[in-house]
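Entry for the shared binder. Reason: the reviewer on the internal report wants the predicted structure included alongside the sequence.
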Amino acid sequence: MSIKVLIPTPLQKFTNDNATIECGGNNVSELIDSLETNFPGIKARLCDEQGSPRRFLNFYVNSEDIRFLDGTKTPLQDGDEVSIVPAVAGG
């Protein structure tokens, strides 16, 4: 299974400066584990100590926010696209 993952610029130092990565996983949680296997250290930047996505990062599966789906249990299919987007704050 091949999932396209879009990596934000601040995290590309963990992916050898690649903005797009191909990984696998049956759900978002497995995808994050796959990213960690291929790029050690990235999971600590994506998830907190409990394995939940960090508050300042948003994950989208095919443009749908996983917070409104099944969170990290959101299922993935071959050809899906996962975007990791840093939250923007300010005023």
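Summary line for the report: Residues 15 and 39 are 6 Å apart (CA to CA).
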